[in-house]
Design a protein that fits this description.
This protein has helices at residues 16-30, 46-50, 69-82, 99-109, 129-136, 146-153, 180-186, 208-218, 238-250, 267-272, 288-295, 326-342, 346-357, 360-373, and strands spanning 2-9, 34-41, 55-58, 89-93, 113-117, 140-143, 162-164, 195-199, 226-230, 257-261, 275-278, 300-303, 320-321. The chain has a seven-stranded parallel sheet, with helices on both faces. It has a six-stranded parallel sheet with strand order 10-9-8-11-12-13, sandwiched between helices. Helix 1 (16-30) packs across helix 14 and helix 11 (288-295) crosses helix 13 (346-357). The two termini are 13 Å apart. The protein is of the alpha/beta class. It is built from 14 helices and 13 strands. The longest helix has 17 residues, at 326-342.
């Protein structure tokens, strides 16, 4: 099948949404599908897409802008005509923001359109007429969690139109290291230092103030622990990062907290960490860092919000804490660290959980099935 993929920015620097799409496209290509990538902004993943995409098409944008509507309409329809389809084509959008363009392209070529629901829906009044038309025109919707599916059903979308496919990762890429001590030395960290890490966007909805305050309480028991915060602001400015740094100084823990910026390859940090933390305040649709960390054998403490409890199931429910609750976060960090010290098999159990439920092949299986069924 010829799959026309729509993506706004072809980069690994924004978050899990773009990384997951790359894994999906590569997986579908390996199964014999032809991939055409339609994008707006170039990024560091473009060269990797070039290895397997039959065509890469840069366009002006996925929306018609009201301020310059005549010019915008002209560019919009020119862009839709750039894309060549076949009888076996389907349009696959990686986010609802691109849905109007996707639906227009699908109508012009009499082919179906499928949209991935990787984000919570905006308030219905903010959905906008373009997104509303586009989303309701999709043949099928793919949600990254049951929680996200319910969010969209509440906005008026039919339950039988939405299937859930959990994100998956390459388990051969994300795996434990046999040389943790060596890697720690390379990072300038002693073997006896307990490492707590955060990897993700430095934005307010990620609950970083909760993380820092919770870590300050954790430090009262674990004097030698260190918090490593990897990432950069996406929705906020560098001033927000400075406010977080100022908070560590106010709490007297600046020497125990390091902001290490964006990591192109976060795997070594997962591997040297004793615990990874995801402190989201908003309804996190999934939480890719959880499965990346656990595949590397590192347990995760995460907030009980959005789709996160659908990952941390069974015995791993004990790793959840209440969003925004500083004391609960510190207590859960203490509990998980004790668990890890008492159970030498915890690392293996974490990885096995991901191997079974969140591997990349299982994700591609689910998406491929929906895409193929959408042709019927």
């Amino acid at each position: 099948m010829h799959i026309i993929v729509l993506e706004n920015e072809v980069t690994s620097l924004r978050g899990g949404q773009e990384l997951s799409l790359f894994d999906v496209c590569l997986g579908l290509y390996k199964r014999g599908h032809t991939i055409t990538l339609v994008y707006v902004t170039e990024g560091n993943l473009l060269k990797e897409y070039q290895f397997f995409c039959s065509d890469l098409i840069k366009i002006n944008g996925f929306r018609i802008e009201r301020k310059k509507i005549i010019d915008s309409l002209h560019k919009f329809f020119i862009d839709t005509r750039k894309i060549k389809t076949t009888k076996a084509s389907i349009v696959y959008s990686n986010q609802y923001h691109n849905s109007f363009f996707a639906y227009t392209l699908a109508i012009f070529n009499n082919i179906p359109f499928v949209c991935h629901l990787r984000l919570p829906p905006p308030q219905i009044k903010k959905l906008g007429y373009q997104w509303s038309i586009g989303m309701h025109g999709a043949k099928h919707l793919i949600a990254v969690s049951n929680y996200t599916k319910i969010d969209w059903i509440k906005q008026g979308f039919k339950e039988d139109k939405i299937d859930v496919v959990y994100n998956g990762i390459n388990i051969e890429k994300f795996k434990p290291s046999a040389h943790v001590s060596i890697t720690k030395k390379e990072w300038g960290i002693s073997d006896d230092v307990e490492v707590i890490s955060y990897i993700g966007r430095l934005d307010k909805e990620k609950g970083l103030e909760t993380l820092i305050r919770g870590f300050s309480l954790f430090l009262k028991i674990h004097k030698s622990a260190q918090l490593l915060i990897a990432g950069k602001p996406l929705c906020y400015t560098e001033e927000y990062k400075k406010s977080l740094e100022h908070l560590t100084s106010e709490l007297g823990i600046a020497e125990s907290v390091k902001f290490i910026g964006h990591l192109t390859n976060p795997i070594p940090l997962y591997q040297i960490s004793d615990v990874t933390v995801l402190t989201s305040l908003h309804s996190e649709p999934f939480g890719r860092t959880i499965i990346e960390s656990m595949a590397c054998g590192t347990p995760v403490v995460a907030s009980r919000t959005g789709g996160i409890p659908e990952i941390l199931t069974g015995k791993f429910q004990r790793m959840l804490y209440e969003p925004g609750n500083v004391q609960n976060l510190a207590d859960t960090l203490n509990f998980v660290l004790k668990w890890k010290n008492l159970d030498p098999q915890l690392s293996t159990k974490c990885r096995e959980h991901i191997l079974h439920s969140f591997n990349v092949d299982k994700m591609v299986d689910g998406i491929e099935k929906i895409i193929l069924n959408s042709r019927n």
